[in-house]
Design a protein that fits this description.
The protein is mainly alpha-helical and 435 residues long. The chain is built from 17 helices and 5 strands.
């Protein structure tokens, strides 16, 4: 009986065509992953392997400054390692060509190939010199701070049904407010509060026009990004340049080494020797995840983001819920902006966020609108940024323009190549009018 039902279901018009198209997409994606694996393997063999002198070694440092236990450097014979790992990637790519893989399996294979490629790239760049891997790991985390906080803000917005293209603008005004308050008052904590509030205020502008007057959320987000860029540039020229010493010279949060944890070899210096903003990221990641997926409040927020009419029917205030998430997300995005000034640089500069808000938005999509996924995406993009910086310091024979493009290329490849077709919250970007 069940077999006959399955046959009738498959014989419906369009079902077989749909299955055929789905299989064709799987085959095509697998072949693309295979071709990419072969291409990366060829790069690992030719310029990385054969382009390195025989016998040349790279010293990869695994010891941090706060560890009590000394970890010796890891010597890597560059040419044989790159030739061997390149051959593995080429053979893996060739083996994939005739064999379609599921999306999850394909992502695992591609992820493994990319890890091998990055290891060869690091070894090749450090050939004949020393590279501090612990420092690279810590730099990755630190550079991921605005991406993590911006992505958390985007998740709070979009889980309630509001698209937030204005993350870039919120990072900018947060950085500006943190610098000017931290300088004028001389209190970094007040600067942090001011940065958070400024991000929330810009978010409220988005909510006011999009929720009250039903302005297109994407267009309004772009407008607010341009507004934030224009107003901060104007105030920078009019206030911060002539009054540099009093309004644009804040101190910076010092690094805090967590007693005991920071002395763990390799892991300690990376995760537990940083400024307060990184520890805030740890806390907010846990809080947002638990609140969204393990509380009644989170269930209501997700209901509003998926089906606002049904949520309204059972008594949930849709517009009020969205406003609440807009404020919360704005506060978090503003904290992310504070990283650029009172968290790292110590002064505000024009366009200091450099597109990190848009990368954070990509992390939201890459992470499937979940904090854990967004964290992994932010770390990937932060690693690309940290890697291009250290490759420039080592003098790797790669044009500086390509190094500067690395974080953005990683964003494009991750979202277009690894994510593919994803499903956002059902009511994301759709205005709600109470009937």
């Amino acid at each position: 009986m069940s077999l006959s039902l399955d046959v009738r279901r498959l014989s419906r018009p369009g079902v077989l065509e749909s299955l055929s198209r789905a299989r064709a997409r799987v085959v095509t994606r697998t072949r693309v992953i295979g071709a990419l694996s072969v291409g990366l393997g060829v790069v690992m063999v030719l310029p990385f392997g054969l382009g390195t002198k025989a016998g040349e070694m790279a010293l990869l440092g695994l010891a941090g400054t706060t560890t009590a236990v000394h970890v010796p450097d890891m010597p890597v014979p560059v040419r044989p390692v790159c030739l061997a790992l390149g051959a593995v990637c080429i053979l893996t790519g060739l083996a994939l060509m005739p064999r379609p893989l599921s999306r999850k399996a394909g992502n695992r294979v591609l992820g493994g190939v990319l890890v091998l490629f990055v290891f060869c790239l690091i070894s090749w760049a450090a050939a004949g010199s020393h590279m501090d891997l612990v420092g690279l790991g810590n730099d990755t985390l630190v550079r991921s701070i605005p991406l993590i906080l911006g992505a958390l803000a985007g998740i709070l917005y979009e889980r309630s049904g509001v698209i937030n293209i204005a993350i870039e603008g919120q990072l900018l005004v947060g950085a500006f407010a943190g610098a000017i308050i931290g300088s004028a008052i001389g209190d970094l904590w007040l600067g942090l509060v001011g940065a958070a509030v400024s991000g929330a205020l810009l978010g409220l502008l988005l909510g006011y026009f999009c929720l009250r007057y039903l302005v297109d959320q994407v267009i309004m987000g772009v407008v607010l990004d341009v507004f934030a860029l224009g107003i901060t540039n104007y105030l920078y020229d009019r206030l911060l340049v002539p009054y540099q010493n009093s309004l644009n010279s804040p101190s910076v949060f010092p690094n805090i080494a967590v007693p005991g944890l920071s002395s763990i070899p390799i892991i300690g210096p990376i995760f537990f020797d940083a400024n307060i903003l990184l520890y805030l990221c740890y806390i907010l990641l846990i809080v947002v995840h638990v609140a969204l997926f393990h509380t009644r409040w989170g269930l209501r927020v997700r209901a509003v983001g998926e089906h606002p009419l049904a949520a309204d029917t059972v008594g949930i205030k849709v517009i009020a819920t969205r406003y609440g998430n807009i404020i919360l997300g704005g506060l978090i995005a503003g904290l992310g902006g504070a990283y650029f000034t009172i968290g790292s640089v110590g002064a505000f500069g024009k366009d200091i966020s450099s597109g990190d808000g848009f990368i954070a938005l990509a992390a939201v999509i890459f992470g499937g609108w979940r904090p854990a996924g967004a964290l992994l995406a932010a770390l990937l993009f932060g690693f690309a940024d940290a890697l291009q910086n250290i490759l420039g310091i080592l003098g790797a024979p790669i044009p500086s323009e390509f190094l500067l493009m690395a974080p953005y290329l990683a964003t494009i490849l991750a979202v277009a190549g690894l994510v593919g077709k994803v499903r956002p919250p059902g009511a994301d970007g759709k205005p709600y009018v109470k009937s």
